[in-house]
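> Could you send the DNA gyrase subunit A prediction when you get a chance?

Sure thing. Input:
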Amino acid sequence: MSTAEAPPPAPLAPTPLNIEEELKESYLTYAMSVIISRALPDIRDGLKPSQRRILVAMRDLGLTPGASTSKCAGIVGETMKRYHPHGDNSIYPTLARMAQWWNMRHLLITGQGNFGSIHGLPPAAMRYTEAKLSPVAAEMLEDINLDTVDFQPNYDEKYQEPRVLPAKFPNLLVNGSGGIAVGMATSIPPHNLGEVCDALVAYIDNPAIDLDEIMEHIPGPDFPGGGTICGQMGIKEAYLHGRGRVVLRARSVTEEQRDGRSQIVFTDIPYQLTKEPLLKKLAELVNNGRITGVSDIVDESDRKQPVRIVVKLKKGEDPNVVLNQLYEFSPLQDTFSVIMLALVDGRPKTLPLKEFLRLFVEHRVVVIRRRTQYQLRQARQRAHIVEGLLIALHHIDEIIRIIRTSRDDNEARARLMGMEVSAQILRRALDDESAKASTSLTRMQADAILSMQLRRLTGLEADKLAAEYAALKADIDRYEAILADEQLILGLIREDLLELKSKYADARRSAISDEEVGDFDKEALIREEYMVVTVTHDGFIKRQLPSTYRAQGRGGRGIAATNTRDGDFLEHMFVALTHDYILFFTDKGKVYWIKVYDLPMATRTSGGRAMVNLLQLSEGEKVTGLVPVREFREDESLLMVTRRGTVKKTELTAFRRPLGRGIIALGLDEGDTLIGVQRVKAGDQVILSTRDGMAIRFDESDVRSMGRPAHGVRGISLEDGDEVVGMVVANGQDDPASLLTVCSHGYGKRTMLAEYRSQNRGGKGLIDIKTSDRNGPVVAVAKVTDADEVMLTTAKGVLIRTRVADTRPIGRNTQGVRLIRLDDGDTLSNLAKLPEEELTADGPLVPDIEVAGDGDGPAPDGLAAADEAPPAHLLDDGVAEAEASDHIDDGDAGDEES
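Output:
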C-alpha cells in the first residue's frame, strides 16, 4: 500500500538580530585584538607581538650575536611561517626599524646592508639585507628555555610561542615605544640605559623612593639622535601622571665667517624626524618670507657626521633672531607627546614612571623565581640519578650479578628496584652522615644504572660522580635559599642591572636646558625653595640658589656674582621662594607680573636672560622695583617712592591681576621716575634715604591710600641735585633693627633705627651719613640685625656676602667703615639682605625676606616651611679691616635738620 510522501518541514522562523548590539560586540572584539595583539607594548619586555615574534624567530634560526647574519627574507619567512601570518609588509618594516640607530636607543637587531637612513631613504628590499640578533636582544631572550615565561600555541597550534620575553634588558624605558590602537595610543620616549639601571637599583634599595629622587638618576628622556630638551616641567609632569609634553630642539652652534657673516649649524634633529622633509620645509619657510635673514641652506652631512645642516645668514643679521624664528616656525623644534601607556596583565594602563620601575622589577622577580625553581627541579633530578649511580658503584658485584642473570631489561629493572640498600652503605656512598636508609632504588635510578657505561667503574669516574653530587647538593641549598628569601632575588636583579650598565651603557645624547617652552601645571611640579634673583642695569635677569655664595668677613675681596657685559652692572638683587609672584615695577610707573620659577635658572657667572624676553616692556622702559608676593592680602599695601621724593600708597589687592602688557602702578610727573616699592601694613614707619646722605622717617598712615593711576604726595623735600636712592620699612618706633647705609666707594655704616626720630611727611629729614669724597654718594640702604647677612655688589659684577655683626652700630652723622675693597675704577652699586637661617627641632623655618636698595617688602605671611633654607657656610672668613680713619666719629654729631 503506497503512502503519500511526508510534507517538507516548515522553515524555521528567522531569529531577530539587534544590529546595534552586533556592531558593539564585533567592534569590541576588533578593538581588543588591536590593543592586545598589535599596537601596544607589554610593560614587562616593552615589545609588541610583531617585534617579539621576529626576535623569537631569529633565535629559532640560530642568529645569535656571535653567528653570521642571514638574509632578512628568510627571517621574514620564518616569522610568517611560525608566528605572525600577517604578510611581509608588516614584518619587514618592523624588523628594519629595530636596526635603525636614529629610531632605537639600543639596537635590537644588527643589520648588514641598507636599512634606510636619517635622510629619509627607505630600507633596501629584504632579499638584499641581512641581520642577526644584537647583544642586548640576546639579553632579552636569556633563560627563555628555563621555564621563565609562559608559552601559548601559535596561530595554527603547530608551534609554541612565548607570551612575553624574560627581558633582563629594560627595553620599554630604554628604547621607548609608539603605537596607535583603537581609542588610545602610546608614546613612550627612549631613555639612557645607565640612568634607567641606576634608577632601578635605587628603587630596589628603597621601594619608597619618590619622583624627585628617581629624577636624580633619570633626569629625562635620551633620544637616539640627541637634541636639546627644553626644561623639566613637561618631563616631570609625564613622569608624575603618565602624560606630558616634552619640547625637543635641534642642537645648534653659531659660526662666524671670514666675510663677517654668520651661519647656524644644526648637528642633530628632533626624534623621528628625517632630513629630507625638514630641508623642504625650511626652504619653503624662507621662500615665503616666514623666516627672514637667511641667504642659503646647505646639507653638509656625511658618514662621519650624519647631521650637519648649515643655515647661512645675510650680512648684518642677528643669529639669535633667526634661530628663534627657526625654532618657532620649523620642525627644528618639535613637541613629543609623552603617553606612558602599556599592557599590564593584558589591560592597557597609563602609568607614572615609578610604576614602570616597579612592574619591571616584579617581572624580573617572577622570572628569576621561575628560573630558580626550574634549576632546583633539574638539580634534584640529577642528584637523584647520581645518588643511584654512587650506590651502584658500592654494590657493583651485586648489580652485575642481577643484570647477568636477568632475561631482559624489564626483569633487570624490576630486580634492581627490589634491591635493598643499607643506611651504612648509603652514607658511605654519598659521603653524607645524615643520609637515611633507602628501601630500594627508584625506576629512574634503575634506568640510569642499566645505561651506565663500563668506564664509569673506574676510580676516576667514581671521584667525578662524588664531586658532581657534592656540587649538586650545594646548588640545591643555594636555590632553596633564593626561593626562601626575596631579598636574594632582588640582589640578583641588582647584579644583572649593574652588569648591563657596565656592558652596554653609553653617555647621554640629549641635553636638558633650563628654558621652559609650553604650558604646564608648574605649581604641582616645582619644589619650593629659596632663590637669589639678580637683575642687571641693562635688564638681564636670572635666579640661582643662595648656597652658590659663601660667607666672608667684612673687608674681603668677594667673588663674581655674574658675568656682566661691557658697560652693564648689577642693579637689583633679592631672595624669594620659587612659588612667589614677582611684581616688576618700572621707571614709567607700570607693573608686570611673573612667577619666580618662570625666571631662567643660571650659573653664578652667567649673564642671565634679557627681561624684554620675559616681560612686554615698551622701548626704553626699565625695571626699578621688584616685590616678591605670595598672597595678595587686604591688610597690606604697597608704598612707592619716586626719585624726586614723591610717595604713594596703594592697596596690595589692586595688583592681583596685572595684564601681560602691564598695568599702571602710579602716575608720574614729567621727568620723574619710580625708584622703589615696599610692602607696608598698619603701624609701620617708612624711612627714605637720599643720595646726599639725608633720611626722613614718618608713619605710613601719613600717606593715605590711593588708586593705581594717582600721582601721590610729597615724602621728602630735596635740595638741588639730591634724589631718593632707597626706602626701608620699620616696624613701629620701637623697632630694634638698624639701618645699613652704603656708599659708592665701598664705605658704609650701621645705625640703630631708634636714632631716626619720626617726623611729618614732606620735611627735609636728618643727616644719615657724611657723603665725603672718601665715601662717595649713598647708593642703597637696608634694615638689618646682628643675625643677618648681606650681599654687596659692585658695578663690575663683584659680590661679597658678609655678616652684619661684623659692622658694629655707630651714630648717624658719621662716615662709617669700609665694607668692601674695590678694584680701581669699580664702585659699589647695590645691597641686599639674605634671609636668616633658623634651625629648630622640627627642621628649617622659613625666614623673613627683606630686600633693600631699590625696594622690596618683607616675606608674605602664611608661607609654608621650605624644603631647604639657604645655608650660610662660614668658609674663608676674611679679615675685618678697621683703620683709624674708618671711624671719624663714633658718636652722634647732633640732630641737625637741614
